[in-house]
């Protein structure tokens, strides 16, 4: 997949955010339109959500949200010390995948689902730079349900540098430089009482 073809597709974005070091994010509003509402409820009810336990500094913690991993059969992916094997895609995700391919020109073969039950569910600072994603990972992050703040900071610094409020039926595309030079997080927001579902589509390149 050529970077130029991706960049040409991304010119259709509703907005582009330029950060330091060539890191860029593109926002697409109203990705699916009316069908997004039904998709939100179907995915909440039908995806195989779980609440895995991870080890942080030697101590076991249940992650503060629900997650699921979906990918092409035969793929392998490791994050937070957990090993995930792809088992194929449920039919319900086919129209969204097709739409994201058309909008971005990318062809992701795996997706990490996150279900934030309310504003107490969070994700800590991290980068999406697992070795399976290769040296230049593109991440397509699609959102349904409640609006939530998505925070960024330069890698190696403590202070948050940017905040983007992501809404229902919105896609955020992150260039590889975002993973190289920035970390991102989904901070706690006590005032948010409704659930939000996020799907981060990725390209596993090992064994492709
Ligand atoms: O929920 C979000 O917007 C972020 C999710 C995320 O960063 C991830 O799945 O790696
Ligand atoms: Mn991430």
From TrEMBL:
2-oxoglutarate binds at residues 114, 116, 126, 184, 196, 200, 202. One of its GO terms (molecular function) is broad specificity oxidative DNA demethylase activity. Residues 107-205 form the Fe2OG dioxygenase domain. Keywords: Dioxygenase, Oxidoreductase. This is Alpha-ketoglutarate-dependent dioxygenase AlkB. Substrate binds at residues 57-59, 77-79. GO terms for biological process: DNA alkylation repair. Transmembrane segments: none annotated. It comes from Alloalcanivorax marinus. The lineage of its organism: Bacteria, Pseudomonadati, Pseudomonadota, Gammaproteobacteria, Oceanospirillales. It comes from the Bacteria. The keyword GTP-binding does not apply. InterPro entries: AlkB-like, AlkB-like_sf, ALKBH2, Oxoglu/Fe-dep_dioxygenase_dom.
């Amino acid at each position: 997949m050529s970077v130029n073809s991706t960049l040409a597709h991304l010119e259709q974005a509703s907005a582009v955010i330029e950060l330091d070091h060539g890191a860029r994010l593109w926002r697409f509003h109203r990705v699916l339109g009316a069908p997004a509402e039904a998709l939100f409820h179907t995915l909440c009810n039908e995806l195989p959500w779980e609440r895995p336990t991870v080890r942080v500094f030697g101590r076991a913690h249940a992650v503060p949200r629900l997650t699921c991993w979906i990918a092409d059969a035969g793929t392998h992916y490791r994050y937070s010390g957990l090993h995930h094997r792809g088992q194929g895609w449920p039919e319900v995700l086919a129209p969204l995948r097709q739409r994201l391919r058309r909008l971005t020109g990318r062809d992701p073969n795996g997706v990490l689902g996150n279900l934030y039950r309310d504003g107490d569910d969070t994700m800590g600072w991290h980068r999406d730079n697992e070795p399976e994603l290769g040296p230049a990972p593109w991440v397509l992050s699609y959102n349904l349900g409640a609006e939530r703040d998505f925070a960024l900071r330069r890698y190696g610094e403590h202070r948050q540098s940017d905040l983007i409020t992501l809404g229902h039926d919105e896609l955020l595309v992150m260039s590889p430089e975002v993973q190289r030079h920035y970390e991102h997080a989904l901070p706690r927001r006590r005032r948010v009482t409704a659930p939000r579902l996020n799907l981060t589509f990725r390209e596993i390149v090992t064994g492709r």
